[in-house]
Amino acid sequence: MNEQTRRSRGRPAVSSRADIERAAMALFAEHGFSATTIPMIASASGVSRTSVFRYWGSKSDIVWAEFDEHIAALAQLLTDRTDTADATMDIVRRSVVENLDRSIHASSLWRERFTLIDSSDELRSEEARRWLAWASVIADFVAHRHAIDPADPVPQSVGGAVQGAFVAVLRAQLSGPRTDTVLSALDHVLNDVGSLIQGWLYTKTALGTNTPH
């Protein structure tokens, strides 16, 4: 019996990246990341293992690919706004909120992905590295705006504070029924955090720079 005949008698085959991703995330939620295998994902999706690897190089890539795209998009938003006259932390707040809004609308699985990343022991080491990359995007933007070394404690502290606030809001809002609740909460928290940081940032970086925003 060939593959096409087998499929015709069972579950209808799907071939899109989104369908396979959806099947994988459901299996991760049900069985855990470690216990879920590529053959299980392929079977649940109605495709071959080769089809799964056509989109992702490994099982963890299914989880992290969208996250990496989220980081890259945030970096681009900040880069595009580097030379505007707005205060640094206002730019950070608007960019972070807008980027999350884009991610929410781009994928219906954002809650599932964050829950898995935040709760899976198997993904813990990768999680730390990815969140460090997220915070570094903020730190690099602050450093560039204020003409200081990205490794300086000032931009690194700002990046860590914003990333911590971002994660805290997502954790608190995971059970919320509407995505606009998450966005509103994030905007509110980052406004408060940014207001506190902005004055401190000015005192630490205004001297000797042409961009004391």
| Percentage of residues in helical conformation | over 70%
Mean pLDDT: 86
Order of helices and strands: HHHHHHHHHH
CATH topology of the largest domain: Tetracycline Repressor, domain 2
Strand segment count: 0
Number of helices: 10
Calculate the terminal CA-CA distance, rounded to whole Å. 69 Å
Q: Quaternary arrangement of the chains shown?
A: single chain
- Fraction in beta strands: under 5%
CATH architecture of the largest domain: Orthogonal Bundle
Radius of gyration using CA atoms only: 21 Å
Low-confidence segments, given as residue ranges, are: 1-14, 207-213
The gross shape turns out to be elongated
Domains (count): 2
* Class derived from helix and strand content: mainly alpha
Main CATH class of the largest domain = Mainly Alpha
What does this structure look like?
This protein has helices at residues 3-9, 17-31, 38-45, 49-55, 59-80, 88-106, 110-119, 124-145, 153-173, 179-205. By secondary structure, it is mainly alpha-helical. It folds into 2 domains: 3-55, Orthogonal Bundle (Arc Repressor Mutant, subunit A), CATH 1.10.10; 64-205, Tetracycline Repressor, domain 2, CATH 1.10.357. The longest helix is centred in the last third of the chain and has 27 residues, at 179-205. The N and C termini lie far apart (69 Å). Mean pLDDT is 86; it is low at 1-14 and 207-213.
